[in-house]
Specification:
With about 325 residues, the protein is an alpha/beta fold. It has helices at about 10-25, 40-55, 75-80, 80-90, 125-135, 140-150, 175, 180-185, 210-220, 235-245, 260-280, 290-300, 325-330, and strands at about 5-10, 30, 35-40, 60, 70, 90-100, 105-115, 120-125, 160-165, 195-200, 225-230, 245-250, 280-285, 305.
């Protein structure tokens, strides 16, 4: 059981009831205004008490860096404690997915994190990151992934770039939170422009000024950055004009079937036009067939990524150029 402190917001009308309960079971706590700070065991006991009293709808909890949640979700929070050991033990492996130019030349790789539990079973990010968020461990997990990914560039040929994901909402102060990442990159004596940091979960970002401060930090230190999943969520043409990312990744939702969908073609062309206005490099991700690749390539997209060219693997390819005449069969395997 983690010793992480939990904050619990308790309305004034039931504070005396809760305090009497805590005194009876001898749990320690700190109370300021209507917020009580306790350990996880005390919070779990309080949940049981509130359920018995049918008062759960009045009480909320939070852990550091996260928002207030209904106390009814506290059981899910405790069940997600397995993520703590993964972060502590650094049970992470980086997989490589190639990003190519239209002739098959490998431009770089996206570094994709994969995790294993204590039994060696694979845990994918779509399960781990929600658990980390619930535990208030998003910053620790995001930092672990970034640093691990930065170190992998030594495994790539000198001309290839490393595309590395990061979650802006996990970075509350760029100068402090990204210091270790930039230090590791400098220790490797690698040109900083070989790193492309990708903004992920962009649809969940409401503070664009904060995002700008992060991107400015990267840019000041010589790194490049990409806006991921454009076309989805809050990513609009106005946002592209505002942030002017050097790389723009068209979301796979608009890539799958674009060769025969007028609606998807309209979105793809609109983002291509906006990117071309200020010289961004356009990347189409999630390509799974030749028809979509050829349509996007013919319209002017420069970089391509997807199962059609290669799945994420624990090792980079042993070639610097994919044979485009053979990808048809390999993509379906």
């Amino acid at each position: 059981m983690s010793k992480q402190r939990v904050s619990i917001k308790i309305p004034e009308e039931i504070q005396s009831l809760v305090l009497d309960h805590f005194k009876h079971i001898s749990y320690t706590y700190e109370l300021e205004n209507d917020v009580m700070a306790v350990d996880e065991q005390a919070a779990a006991d309080l949940l049981d008490f509130l359920k018995a009293m049918q008062l759960t709808d009045l009480v909320h909890f939070k852990v550091p860096t996260e928002e207030w949640l209904s106390i009814e979700l506290f059981e899910q929070y405790r069940e997600a404690s397995w993520v703590d050991s993964i972060i502590r033990e650094k049970n992470i492996t980086m997989y490589f997915q190639p990003i190519i130019q239209n002739d098959g030349t490998i431009y770089g790789y996206e570094m994709l994190a994969r995790f294993k539990d204590t039994d060696g079973n694979m845990i994918f990010p779509d399960m781990l990151f929600p658990a980390a968020k619930l535990r208030g461990r998003t910053f620790a997990l995001d930092r672990l992934c970034r640093i691990k990914a930065v170190r992998q560039i030594k495994r790539l040929p000198e001309h290839q770039k490393a595309f590395i994901n990061f979650i802006p909402t996990a970075i509350y102060n760029p100068e402090y939170c990204l210091k270790t990442t930039t230090a590791v990159a400098n220790q490797l004596s690698i040109e900083s422009d070989r790193f492309v940091f990708e903004v992920v979960e962009t649809e969940k970002i409401s503070d664009t000024d904060h995002l700008k401060s992060i991107l400015t930090y990267y840019q000041t230190h010589g790194f490049s950055y990409a806006l991921d999943d454009v076309g989805a969520g809050f990513n609009t043409l106005d946002l592209l004009s505002d942030l002017k990312p050097p790389y723009v990744k068209l979301d796979m939702e608009y890539v799958h079937g674009v060769s025969h969908s007028k609606d998807k073609q309209k979105v793809a062309l609109a983002f291509l036009e906006k990117a071309n206005e200020y010289g961004a490099i356009t990347l189409a991700e999630g390509i799974e067939n030749r028809e979509d690749f050829e349509w996007l390539e013919s319209k002017g997209y420069k970089l391509f990524q997807g199962y059609y060219f290669g799945r994420p693997e624990p090792e980079p390819l042993n070639t610097v150029k994919i044979d485009m005449t053979s990808v048809t069969t390999s993509a379906t395997n």
